[in-house]
C-alpha cells in the first residue's frame, strides 16, 4: 500500500506530480485557453463581484490560504483576509450577508474550520469549500467548491494536499480574474501554460532527493531552525517550519525574511541553520540582503534558489536549485525540497514520520 516507499509521507511527496496533474485534469487546457471548475457555477458571480474574501483554515491549509490571498489580490484585485478558523469563530467577526468565505481543508472534517463556516453561513455568507476528501462534512455544508483530487493522504504531515490546494486556488483566482478583466489576456495565458508545466517541474525538484538527504545528515542534530521567505515564498517558509517541527520535533520558526530584524535575528549564531527560500522573483534582491544579514552573524544558510542562480551560491553553505517558474506558482515547486528535508531529518532522528506524537490526521476536536 506504500507502493514500495518506506513511509506514506515519502510516497505522498513523490505522488505530487500526479496529484497536481489530476487536480487540473478536465478543468484546464492552456491550448484552448479553457479553465472550467464544475463545482463553481451558481455562485460564480457572487465570487466575481465579491467586495472581499475571507479564508478560514488551520495548519497547512491555512498556509495555502496565505498563498491564495496573494493570488486573489494580485489577479482579481479583491481584498482577502486569511483567518485561523479557531480565532475567527470566537471573536464575533464581522460577516455580512453575501460575503464570500473560502474554507480550505484536506480532511473536510477539521472541527474549528467546520464551526467557523457554520457561523459564517448562519450570517448569510456564501461558502466555497476546497477539500480533498469527497463527501466530507465541510464539502457538504459548503454552497459550492472544488475538490483537490489529490487522492487519500495518509501521512499526518500534509504534503500533496497542500500543492493540490494551491493548484485549485490558483485556477479559481485565474478564472475569476479572467471574467473580471483584472488580468491581461497575455498573463492569463502565460499562467495557464505555466500551470500545466508544474507537474514536470515538481518531478524535477523531486530529483533533488539525494542532495537533500546529504544536507539532512549535516543538520539532523540541530536544535532549532529558522525558515525565511518573502512574497509568495513567505507562506512556504511557514510551511517548511511546520513540516519540520511536527515530524522531527526540532523547534523551527518561519518568518517573513524582512521581519527577522525585528526580533528573531537575535537567535542567529554559528549553530543556527537558516533556510532561505530565495528564488528569482520580485523580492530577490531584498532576500539577498537578508542572507547577508544572516551571514554576518555566522548563521548556516541553506538556500532554495532558481536554477542557474550565480549569486547566492557564493554566500550560502548549501544551495538547492529548483526549476524556474512564474513567481505566483513557485510555492508548488519551492516547497518540495522543504518537505524532503523534514522527512529525511525525521527519519534520521528515528521519529515516527507518518504518525508523529500527539497528532491526529484530522483534528475533530476544537
Ligand atoms: O484536514 P485539514 O486540512 O483541515 O487539516 C488542517 C491541519 O490540521 C493540518 O494541515 C495539519 O496542520 C497538518 N498536520 C500539517 O502537516
UniProtKB/TrEMBL annotation:
Residues 43-182, 215-356 form the SIS domain. It is found in: Cytoplasm. It catalyses: D-fructose 6-phosphate + L-glutamine = D-glucosamine 6-phosphate + L-glutamate. GO terms for cellular component: cytosol. Its EC number is 2.6.1.16. GO terms for molecular function: carbohydrate derivative binding; glutamine-fructose-6-phosphate transaminase (isomerizing) activity. Its main location: cytoplasm. Catalyzes the first step in hexosamine metabolism, converting fructose-6P into glucosamine-6P using glutamine as a nitrogen source. This is Glutamine--fructose-6-phosphate aminotransferase [isomerizing]. It comes from Fulvivirga sediminis. The lineage of its organism: Bacteria, Pseudomonadati, Bacteroidota, Cytophagia, Cytophagales.
Amino acid at each position: 500500500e506504500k507502493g514500495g516507499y518506506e513511509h506514506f509521507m515519502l510516497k505522498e511527496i513523490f505522488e505530487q506530480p500526479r496529484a497536481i496533474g489530476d487536480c487540473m485534469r478536465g478543468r484546464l487546457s492552456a491550448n484552448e485557453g479553457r479553465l472550467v471548475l464544475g463545482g463553481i457555477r451558481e455562485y460564480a458571480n457572487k465570487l466575481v463581484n465579491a467586495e472581499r474574501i475571507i479564508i478560514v483554515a488551520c495548519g497547512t491549509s491555512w498556509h495555502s490560504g496565505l498563498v491564495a490571498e496573494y493570488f486573489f489580490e494580485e489577479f482579481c484585485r479583491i481584498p482577502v483576509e486569511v483567518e485561523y478558523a479557531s480565532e475567527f469563530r470566537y471573536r464575533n467577526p464581522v460577516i455580512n450577508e453575501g460575503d464570500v468565505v473560502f474554507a480550505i481543508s484536506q480532511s473536510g472534517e477539521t472541527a474549528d474550520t467546520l464551526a467557523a463556516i457554520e457561523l459564517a453561513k448562519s450570517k448569510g455568507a456564501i461558502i466555497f469549500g476546497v477539500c480533498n476528501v469527497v463527501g466530507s462534512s465541510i464539502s457538504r455544508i459548503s454552497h459550492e467548491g472544488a475538490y483537490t483530487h489529490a487522492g487519500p493522504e495518509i501521512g499526518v504531515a500534509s504534503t500533496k494536499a497542500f500543492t493540490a490546494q494551491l493548484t485549485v486556488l490558483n485556477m479559481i483566482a485565474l478564472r475569476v480574474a479572467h471574467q473580471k478583466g483584472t488580468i491581461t489576456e497575455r498573463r492569463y495565458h502565460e499562467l495557464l501554460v505555466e500551470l500545466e508545466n508544474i507537474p514536470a517541474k515538481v518531478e524535477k525538484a523531486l530529483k533533488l532527493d539525494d542532495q537533500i538527504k546529504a544536507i539532512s545528515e549535516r543538520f539532523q542534530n540541530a536544535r532549532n531552525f529558522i525558515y525565511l521567505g518573502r512574497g509568495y515564498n513567505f507562506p512556504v517558509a511557514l510551511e517548511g517550519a511546520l513540516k519540520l517541527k511536527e515530524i522531527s520535533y526540532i523547534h523551527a520558526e518561519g518568518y517573513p525574511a524582512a521581519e527577522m530584524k525585528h526580533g528573531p535575528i537575535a537567535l542567529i549564531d554559528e549553530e543556527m541553520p537558516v533556510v532561505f527560500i530565495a528564488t528569482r522573483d520580485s523580492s530577490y534582491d531584498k532576500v539577498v540582503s537578508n542572507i547577508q544579514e544572516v551571514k554576518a552573524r555566522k548563521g548556516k544558510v541553506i538556500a532554495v534558489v532558481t536554477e542557474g542562480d550565480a549569486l547566492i551560491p557564493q554566500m550560502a553553505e548549501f544551495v538547492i536549485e529548483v526549476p524556474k517558474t512564474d513567481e505566483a506558482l513557485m510555492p508548488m515547486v519551492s516547497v518540495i525540497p522543504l518537505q524532503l528535508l523534514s522527512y529525511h531529518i525525521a527519519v534520521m532522528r528515528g521519529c515516527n514520520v507518518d504518525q508523529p506524537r500527539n497528532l491526529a490526521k484530522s483534528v475533530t476536536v476544537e
